[in-house]
Amino acid sequence: DTPILIDKQHAALISLNSAIIPYSMYNIREGINNELGYRFISDNFGEVIQIPQGNYTITTLATTITGLLNAIDSLSGTYTMSFNRTTMKYTLSSSVSEIYLDFGLTNKSIHIEMGYNSDGRSNGITSNGVISPNVVDVNGSIHSLFIRTNLTSKSSIDSQTKSFSTILGKIPIDNNFGSVLFFNPRDNTQKILLDTHLINIITIRITDEFNRNIDLNGLNCNLSILIDVVNKKDFIKKENRRIQEEYLQSVIDNQKKVIEKRGRPRKVGRPKNVDSKS
Description:
The chain is 17% helix and 29% strand. The chain has helices at residues 58-70, 111-114, 232-262, and strands at residues 4-5, 10-22, 35-40, 46-50, 79-84, 89-94, 99-101, 130-131, 144-149, 157-158, 163-164, 167-172, 180-183, 192-193, 198-199, 204-207, 222-231. Strands 2, 13, 14 and 17 form a four-stranded antiparallel beta sheet that branches. A hairpin with a 5-residue loop joins β3 and β4.
Protein backbone atom coordinates (compact mmCIF):
# COMPACT_ATOMS: atom_id res chain seq x y z
CA ASP A 1 0.00 0.00 0.00
CA THR A 2 2.97 2.32 0.57
CA PRO A 3 5.05 3.33 -2.48
CA ILE A 4 8.81 2.79 -2.40
CA LEU A 5 10.64 6.09 -2.73
CA ILE A 6 14.30 6.29 -3.74
CA ASP A 7 16.17 9.59 -3.65
CA LYS A 8 18.31 10.78 -6.55
CA GLN A 9 21.59 9.92 -4.83
CA HIS A 10 20.67 6.27 -4.64
CA ALA A 11 19.62 3.52 -7.02
CA ALA A 12 17.54 0.40 -6.56
CA LEU A 13 18.55 -3.16 -7.44
CA ILE A 14 15.73 -5.68 -7.62
CA SER A 15 16.25 -9.44 -7.58
CA LEU A 16 14.35 -12.65 -7.01
CA ASN A 17 14.85 -13.86 -3.45
CA SER A 18 12.82 -17.08 -3.47
CA ALA A 19 10.18 -18.90 -5.50
CA ILE A 20 8.00 -21.96 -5.10
CA ILE A 21 6.09 -22.82 -8.28
CA PRO A 22 3.95 -25.92 -8.85
CA TYR A 23 4.83 -27.89 -11.96
CA SER A 24 1.26 -27.83 -13.23
CA MET A 25 1.78 -26.24 -16.65
CA TYR A 26 1.21 -28.44 -19.70
CA ASN A 27 3.86 -29.37 -22.25
CA ILE A 28 1.26 -29.35 -25.06
CA ARG A 29 -0.50 -25.99 -24.87
CA GLU A 30 -3.43 -24.68 -26.84
CA GLY A 31 -2.37 -21.92 -29.23
CA ILE A 32 1.32 -22.76 -28.76
CA ASN A 33 2.13 -26.26 -29.99
CA ASN A 34 -1.07 -28.30 -30.30
CA GLU A 35 -1.56 -28.50 -34.08
CA LEU A 36 -0.40 -31.11 -36.60
CA GLY A 37 -0.53 -30.39 -40.32
CA TYR A 38 -0.70 -32.93 -43.12
CA ARG A 39 -1.36 -32.94 -46.88
CA PHE A 40 -2.96 -35.45 -49.22
CA ILE A 41 -0.53 -36.92 -51.71
CA SER A 42 -3.16 -36.98 -54.48
CA ASP A 43 -4.03 -33.25 -54.64
CA ASN A 44 -1.65 -31.64 -52.09
CA PHE A 45 -4.64 -30.35 -50.08
CA GLY A 46 -3.66 -29.44 -46.51
CA GLU A 47 -5.46 -30.10 -43.21
CA VAL A 48 -4.65 -29.37 -39.57
CA ILE A 49 -5.73 -31.48 -36.59
CA GLN A 50 -6.04 -30.13 -33.06
CA ILE A 51 -4.36 -32.02 -30.22
CA PRO A 52 -6.05 -31.49 -26.82
CA GLN A 53 -3.76 -29.63 -24.46
CA GLY A 54 -2.33 -31.53 -21.53
CA ASN A 55 0.80 -33.09 -20.11
CA TYR A 56 1.95 -35.89 -22.40
CA THR A 57 4.65 -38.51 -22.24
CA ILE A 58 6.30 -39.98 -25.33
CA THR A 59 3.89 -42.91 -25.25
CA THR A 60 0.65 -41.01 -24.58
CA LEU A 61 1.50 -38.42 -27.25
CA ALA A 62 1.97 -41.15 -29.87
CA THR A 63 -1.28 -42.82 -28.81
CA THR A 64 -3.20 -39.53 -28.98
CA ILE A 65 -1.88 -38.56 -32.43
CA THR A 66 -2.62 -41.95 -34.00
CA GLY A 67 -6.06 -41.97 -32.40
CA LEU A 68 -6.86 -38.59 -33.95
CA LEU A 69 -5.60 -39.66 -37.39
CA ASN A 70 -7.59 -42.89 -37.30
CA ALA A 71 -10.74 -40.95 -36.36
CA ILE A 72 -10.64 -38.72 -39.48
CA ASP A 73 -13.31 -39.86 -41.94
CA SER A 74 -11.40 -38.70 -45.01
CA LEU A 75 -8.44 -40.95 -44.14
CA SER A 76 -8.87 -44.59 -45.08
CA GLY A 77 -5.59 -45.91 -43.72
CA THR A 78 -4.84 -47.28 -40.27
CA TYR A 79 -2.07 -45.31 -38.53
CA THR A 80 0.42 -46.50 -35.93
CA MET A 81 3.22 -44.62 -34.19
CA SER A 82 6.14 -46.13 -32.28
CA PHE A 83 9.14 -44.75 -30.40
CA ASN A 84 12.66 -46.14 -30.66
CA ARG A 85 14.42 -45.74 -27.31
CA THR A 86 17.82 -46.26 -28.92
CA THR A 87 17.54 -43.51 -31.54
CA MET A 88 14.92 -41.53 -29.53
CA LYS A 89 12.84 -40.98 -32.68
CA TYR A 90 9.24 -41.61 -33.74
CA THR A 91 8.18 -43.86 -36.62
CA LEU A 92 4.76 -43.13 -38.13
CA SER A 93 3.27 -45.85 -40.36
CA SER A 94 0.07 -46.27 -42.36
CA SER A 95 -1.61 -49.20 -44.11
CA VAL A 96 -2.44 -46.88 -47.05
CA SER A 97 -0.13 -44.29 -48.63
CA GLU A 98 -2.35 -41.21 -48.74
CA ILE A 99 -0.79 -38.33 -46.72
CA TYR A 100 2.49 -36.75 -45.66
CA LEU A 101 3.18 -34.48 -42.71
CA ASP A 102 3.66 -30.74 -43.30
CA PHE A 103 4.55 -28.75 -40.17
CA GLY A 104 4.73 -25.49 -42.12
CA LEU A 105 0.94 -25.43 -42.41
CA THR A 106 0.63 -23.82 -38.97
CA ASN A 107 2.74 -21.67 -36.66
CA LYS A 108 1.36 -23.60 -33.67
CA SER A 109 2.75 -26.94 -34.75
CA ILE A 110 3.96 -29.80 -32.61
CA HIS A 111 7.13 -30.22 -34.67
CA ILE A 112 9.70 -30.19 -31.81
CA GLU A 113 7.74 -32.74 -29.82
CA MET A 114 7.55 -35.04 -32.87
CA GLY A 115 11.18 -34.59 -33.92
CA TYR A 116 10.81 -32.25 -36.92
CA ASN A 117 11.83 -28.72 -37.89
CA SER A 118 9.24 -25.94 -37.94
CA ASP A 119 9.00 -26.02 -41.75
CA GLY A 120 9.71 -29.73 -42.08
CA ARG A 121 7.88 -32.20 -44.27
CA SER A 122 7.86 -35.97 -44.16
CA ASN A 123 7.84 -38.43 -46.99
CA GLY A 124 4.59 -40.15 -47.87
CA ILE A 125 3.53 -42.27 -44.91
CA THR A 126 3.48 -45.95 -45.89
CA SER A 127 3.61 -49.33 -44.19
CA ASN A 128 7.42 -49.01 -44.12
CA GLY A 129 7.06 -46.03 -41.80
CA VAL A 130 8.47 -42.52 -41.74
CA ILE A 131 11.16 -41.83 -39.13
CA SER A 132 11.43 -38.34 -37.62
CA PRO A 133 14.70 -36.62 -38.65
CA ASN A 134 15.37 -35.20 -35.20
CA VAL A 135 15.32 -36.55 -31.66
CA VAL A 136 11.90 -36.31 -30.02
CA ASP A 137 11.50 -33.74 -27.22
CA VAL A 138 8.02 -33.81 -25.65
CA ASN A 139 9.01 -30.87 -23.41
CA GLY A 140 10.48 -28.88 -26.28
CA SER A 141 8.18 -25.88 -25.84
CA ILE A 142 9.17 -25.25 -22.21
CA HIS A 143 12.47 -26.12 -20.55
CA SER A 144 12.72 -23.26 -18.06
CA LEU A 145 10.52 -20.71 -16.33
CA PHE A 146 11.39 -17.01 -16.33
CA ILE A 147 10.16 -14.59 -13.67
CA ARG A 148 9.62 -11.14 -15.19
CA THR A 149 8.45 -7.78 -13.85
CA ASN A 150 6.99 -4.58 -15.24
CA LEU A 151 9.93 -2.55 -13.92
CA THR A 152 12.30 -1.13 -16.53
CA SER A 153 15.98 -1.96 -16.31
CA LYS A 154 18.87 0.02 -17.72
CA SER A 155 21.67 -2.42 -16.94
CA SER A 156 21.07 -5.44 -19.21
CA ILE A 157 19.46 -6.40 -22.51
CA ASP A 158 17.11 -9.34 -23.10
CA SER A 159 18.12 -11.00 -26.38
CA GLN A 160 14.65 -12.50 -26.83
CA THR A 161 12.66 -9.26 -26.61
CA LYS A 162 15.53 -7.05 -27.96
CA SER A 163 14.89 -4.55 -25.16
CA PHE A 164 15.99 -3.84 -21.61
CA SER A 165 15.68 -6.95 -19.49
CA THR A 166 12.84 -7.42 -17.03
CA ILE A 167 13.94 -10.92 -16.01
CA LEU A 168 14.31 -11.46 -12.27
CA GLY A 169 15.28 -15.11 -12.37
CA LYS A 170 15.35 -18.35 -14.30
CA ILE A 171 14.04 -21.62 -12.88
CA PRO A 172 15.00 -24.80 -14.75
CA ILE A 173 12.39 -27.54 -14.98
CA ASP A 174 14.27 -30.48 -13.51
CA ASN A 175 11.41 -32.30 -11.75
CA ASN A 176 8.54 -34.46 -12.91
CA PHE A 177 5.09 -33.11 -13.71
CA GLY A 178 2.96 -32.67 -10.57
CA SER A 179 5.92 -31.80 -8.35
CA VAL A 180 7.11 -28.39 -7.10
CA LEU A 181 9.86 -26.22 -8.61
CA PHE A 182 12.11 -24.36 -6.18
CA PHE A 183 14.31 -21.35 -6.88
CA ASN A 184 17.65 -21.36 -5.10
CA PRO A 185 18.77 -17.78 -4.34
CA ARG A 186 22.39 -18.93 -4.12
CA ASP A 187 22.35 -19.49 -7.88
CA ASN A 188 20.90 -16.06 -8.67
CA THR A 189 23.32 -13.55 -10.16
CA GLN A 190 20.67 -11.50 -11.94
CA LYS A 191 19.93 -8.07 -10.47
CA ILE A 192 17.97 -5.39 -12.30
CA LEU A 193 19.14 -1.80 -11.94
CA LEU A 194 15.88 0.15 -11.91
CA ASP A 195 15.42 3.23 -14.02
CA THR A 196 12.93 4.76 -11.60
CA HIS A 197 12.84 6.43 -8.21
CA LEU A 198 9.22 5.63 -7.42
CA ILE A 199 7.71 2.15 -7.27
CA ASN A 200 3.93 2.15 -6.95
CA ILE A 201 3.18 -1.38 -8.14
CA ILE A 202 5.13 -4.48 -9.12
CA THR A 203 3.65 -6.85 -11.69
CA ILE A 204 5.01 -10.39 -11.88
CA ARG A 205 4.80 -12.57 -15.00
CA ILE A 206 5.85 -16.21 -15.32
CA THR A 207 6.85 -17.09 -18.88
CA ASP A 208 8.72 -19.71 -20.87
CA GLU A 209 12.00 -18.97 -22.65
CA PHE A 210 10.10 -17.43 -25.57
CA ASN A 211 8.35 -14.86 -23.34
CA ARG A 212 4.98 -16.66 -23.55
CA ASN A 213 2.82 -16.58 -20.43
CA ILE A 214 2.59 -19.79 -18.40
CA ASP A 215 -0.75 -21.12 -17.17
CA LEU A 216 -0.47 -22.92 -13.81
CA ASN A 217 -4.00 -24.28 -14.34
CA GLY A 218 -5.54 -22.87 -11.18
CA LEU A 219 -2.66 -23.47 -8.75
CA ASN A 220 -0.85 -20.71 -6.89
CA CYS A 221 2.84 -19.87 -6.64
CA ASN A 222 4.87 -18.21 -3.89
CA LEU A 223 7.43 -15.52 -4.71
CA SER A 224 9.50 -13.03 -2.75
CA ILE A 225 11.62 -10.27 -4.26
CA LEU A 226 14.43 -8.20 -2.78
CA ILE A 227 15.05 -4.50 -3.40
CA ASP A 228 18.51 -3.20 -2.48
CA VAL A 229 19.03 0.54 -2.22
CA VAL A 230 22.65 1.39 -3.06
CA ASN A 231 24.72 4.52 -3.49
CA LYS A 232 24.62 5.30 -7.19
CA LYS A 233 28.22 6.55 -7.47
CA ASP A 234 29.69 3.61 -5.58
CA PHE A 235 27.64 1.18 -7.66
CA ILE A 236 28.77 2.74 -10.94
CA LYS A 237 32.41 2.59 -9.79
CA LYS A 238 32.06 -1.09 -8.88
CA GLU A 239 30.39 -1.88 -12.21
CA ASN A 240 33.12 -0.05 -14.15
CA ARG A 241 35.78 -1.90 -12.17
CA ARG A 242 34.06 -5.22 -12.86
CA ILE A 243 33.85 -4.47 -16.61
CA GLN A 244 37.52 -3.48 -16.69
CA GLU A 245 38.55 -6.65 -14.87
CA GLU A 246 36.52 -8.81 -17.24
CA TYR A 247 38.08 -7.03 -20.23
CA LEU A 248 41.62 -7.49 -18.90
CA GLN A 249 40.93 -11.16 -18.19
CA SER A 250 39.66 -11.64 -21.75
CA VAL A 251 42.85 -10.03 -23.11
CA ILE A 252 44.99 -12.37 -20.99
CA ASP A 253 42.97 -15.39 -22.13
CA ASN A 254 43.37 -14.39 -25.79
CA GLN A 255 47.12 -13.96 -25.35
CA LYS A 256 47.33 -17.45 -23.85
CA LYS A 257 45.45 -18.87 -26.83
CA VAL A 258 47.86 -17.15 -29.25
CA ILE A 259 50.86 -18.58 -27.40
CA GLU A 260 49.34 -22.06 -27.39
CA LYS A 261 48.72 -21.91 -31.15
CA ARG A 262 52.39 -21.13 -31.87
CA GLY A 263 53.32 -24.71 -31.04
CA ARG A 264 56.74 -26.08 -30.06
CA PRO A 265 59.59 -23.54 -30.13
CA ARG A 266 62.29 -23.93 -32.78
CA LYS A 267 65.52 -25.52 -31.62
CA VAL A 268 68.66 -23.40 -31.58
CA GLY A 269 70.58 -23.68 -34.84
CA ARG A 270 67.68 -25.12 -36.82
CA PRO A 271 67.00 -22.93 -39.90
CA LYS A 272 63.55 -21.65 -40.63
CA ASN A 273 61.66 -23.07 -43.57
CA VAL A 274 62.46 -20.92 -46.65
CA ASP A 275 60.88 -21.35 -50.02
CA SER A 276 63.63 -22.19 -52.53
CA LYS A 277 63.65 -20.64 -55.97
CA SER A 278 64.68 -22.77 -58.94
